[in-house]
Structure prediction request, 326 residues.
Amino acid sequence: MNVKNPCLTSWQMSCRQLRDLPRSAFTLVELLVVIAIIGILIGMLLPAVQAVRESARRTQCLNNLKQMSLALLNYESTFGHLPPGYSYPAEAFWSAYLLPQLEQNNLYETIDLEGPWIISGSANHDACASYIALFQCPSSGVVEHESNAQGIDGRVPCNYIACASGTNNRESGEKPYVGDDDPQLSDGIFFENSETTLAQIIDGQSNTIMIGEALHDFTLWGQDYADSPEVVDHWYIGSNGLGPYSSDNSIDVSEAIGSAACPINATQDEDSPINDKELCFSSRHPGVAQLGYADGHAGNVRETIDPVVLSALGTRNGGEVVSSFD
Prediction:
């Protein structure tokens, strides 16, 4: 006997009725409202995401400085002195001497520290075109290689320079020059043919800059004190651009070294002389540049730092008292 189930029939009828109802859809206005809400949410989240990314890049940069600072101290422990800011007339940079302490001994073994550096196909030329991530700040936005930069094809920019002075602020025109081989004129740790020992850093290792960030930016240029066109460029390993000092000659010591006599982030001041832009410590981290000190620690300084304090941090034996970096 066939018996109907009233509950089942009712359910089936309800489903059929629901299927027969006209379907609703988003109107154009509703769709635009949803898109607008999503856009607002993305706009609110994007600065936070960018801030997190910049924080990570800044931490990586600080780690680079820390590694190089400790490597410099290891070098001093091994050889009894720190490497030169740059050698002359060989024109090898402090970074070339430091390669074995940075786990780049294989590259170091290929280099002739007596130069030259621009002979295409030579080991020295190829070393200058070998990419080493440690020497580039991830926030800098710098290219990995520059094509045919001063005779070196594929030359790798560097975002870190060594501190030569706290008082001198020019590499052209009249003396005194940053990097002068006279240790009385170059009052920082690194300069031409320098062999500074830790014992000679009498201002205190924690208060004396060894190295710091520096932007490499070919779009920044100007006429220097010798009326020669210059651009803001920094490199590692070696160069053929460091000629002899003279009042009518420009010498690109800023390829490797800089000065705390120049304002932090002078690169961002259109009115700053090109020498300040080349020699200053600078970065793309908002409002600061990061530095490595002679005790091995690394930290940042604000671009609003008192120039007197910054100058004191740049000298190795000025006898200044530094109580605060801000």
Observations:
- The first helix runs from residue 6 to 20.
